[in-house]
């Protein structure tokens, strides 16, 4: 395992090497104080793990470059104790966050967890099931283009409005959602520009994604309106369970959490844990695979894959995966993983979350039925 750390060693290199040796892992660790220099060397393209300091100039840029040039590498961002990532770009280019100083056990756990996820999504039965589908659902073109535009801080509301207006069907669905109980505005939103200004870029991006995803034709037996309603309720709930950019990423993951149900041959267990006739891969893993093919950020892919088994992600704390588990469970009637929540000291929050989910689910239904506009 080749590990490239773009951060000041300050004596930690020898200590980390000794600790890794005690753990019995034979890793080649190279330190570079300058992220720019780290990204220009041959070690960058050959690295299995890239670690960058969030406070070093170019640290997040290095992880973005790794995502594009060396996508199989595990990407880790170093933060101060108690610090949260303050930019969506940092979240989207990172597999894991770690606190400084680097501890060997946390580094090993983070790397092994990401590798386990990659192996899960490379499982032969999953690839075989997806490969048998004659025509995969197309990527959410408008969402991905909007996502790219919004990475540029110079993008204006006029640019976003013009982009959405190019797809009249999706634009109509976004307007319908803006005027639904989902947002409960006192005045009618009459045009896309008003919607962009009123609800903001992050919410507009999620609504565009919802409009495109829920336009896909489901296999027999799948109620598309019910799917859209659950996704929107889960998204709204997930956004309330976290703060900052993490809340937006959790809300986005929740709205697409059941996208795997749109694929034929997947296994969709009932709420009591029993399965359907299909012996195919679980819809959560199939959905995560599809989202990975579409190029959605890894935190979203991981949260979707582990939505029914949140403890499979060994992340220490309640983050995107935990929020998506709670939101999708309460929106869809699946049981919560109480052992997982108890381990995080969150069991006492469950009644409050259940009340929030009930309030969101009680919103009037008709305005959310996006398929009426097909």
From TrEMBL:
**Alphabetical UniProt keywords:** Phosphoprotein
**KW Phosphoprotein (keyword) present:** yes
In terms of Gene3D superfamilies, this protein maps to: 3.40.50.2300, Hypothetical protein af1432 (1.10.3210.10)
**Family matches, as InterPro entries:** CheY-like_superfamily, HDOD, RNase_Y/CdgJ, Sig_transdc_resp-reg_put, Sig_transdc_resp-reg_receiver
Q: Coiled-coil regions in this chain?
A: none
Span of domain Response regulatory: 2-115
Q: Which residues carry this modification: 4-aspartylphosphate?
A: 53
Provide the HDOD domain boundaries: 136-310
User: What biological-process terms (Gene Ontology) are attached?
Assistant: phosphorelay signal transduction system
User: What name does the UniProt record give this protein?
Assistant: HDOD domain-containing protein
The scientific name of the source species is Coralloluteibacterium stylophorae
